[in-house]
Design goal:
CATH class of the largest domain: Alpha Beta
Number of helices: 7
Number of domains: 2
Largest sheet: 6 strands, antiparallel
Oligomer: single chain
Number of strands: 19
Structural class: alpha+beta
CATH superfamily of the largest domain: SGNH hydrolase
Distance between the termini: 19 Å
Helix content: 10-25%
Shape: globular
Length: 370
Amino acid sequence: MFRSLIFVCLFPVFALGCSKKSATNSNVASNTVLATNPLIEYNGRFDFTDPLQPKCSFSGASIRIMFQGTSIKAVLSDNSTSNYFNVIVDGLVTKRILLTAENSTYVLASGLSDAVHEIELYKLTESTFGITTFNSFILEEGKTLVPITTTRKLFFEYYGDSITCGSGIEGSSTSSQSNGNQNHYLSYAAITSRNFKARHQAVSKSGVGLFLNYTNTAVPTDVESANSMNNYFDRIHWSSATPLYQFQKTPDMIFINLGTNDFSKGVNDAKYEATYYAFIDKLQVKSPGVDIVVLLGPMISGWNYTHFKPILQRIATTANAKNKGKVHFFEMSQQGALGTGSQNHPNVAQHAKNAQELTDFIKTIKPSWK
């Protein structure tokens, strides 16, 4: 949340300033904080095509401020009725809200002490459940925003599938995945970012593969899915080719957790591996010198596990040898002992365990990150 960006959500919108509309619109109440306010911090990929109505869709996108007063509201719109957000007040999750399709005002907090508070709106559900538009915050009369003091100096970026989305995480082994039991905030990715007080960005979608997406039907395993992560990694909204993300800020570390869906149908090994190298090359062009961690996720088992693991290890070793940036391999422990969430997905306990494992690993390669 250090600098402002145009068209992406990674930083506050300092460069945007107040548009002509926001500066001259006399109909805006004095206690309304427009989306262009430079004290708002945007995390994740946001579309700022209309600076007064920034849009997000990926899991983990968030809007953070510090404000004076005992209460606060937000005006939000959604193109579905399926997106859930956490409301986080002073670092604690206080409620979960389900957005409606209409342009609506939501009470985020009330009855607080009359002091300065931090609040964050955090998207729990993935892009499949729709696009959310942020319009404004509404403060109490006479109150204002103040600069954020709890800065997040590191920036982590994740590319993944339903595991990274936190799909089914709050469900049971007998339930189906749904928007109600998906919770990216409790995912291994989000927890790991919080463990390092890092800014967080996730580009993830259920069913996606690096090369070959999951399907219920037989597919030719040597033909890349048109909407694989390799082809859609630079999108702000999975459902739209415009606007594209501009990669203005280089992450401190990138994590790739892709392959569970590719190997569910027996992907062509050579083409998967070649695509993985190409994907790493793309990321290193966009973010020169970045550390990349190739992850083996917790849902691989049996023959797939023994077959897949050495492929990922070889990819990391070979990519690292190119000296374009450090590339590491890390294996998360496999699920089972702690039970599962919906449709055999990792549950809350498994994600917490994997987050701690990943956190410990990061500290071995970046000991200065506390």
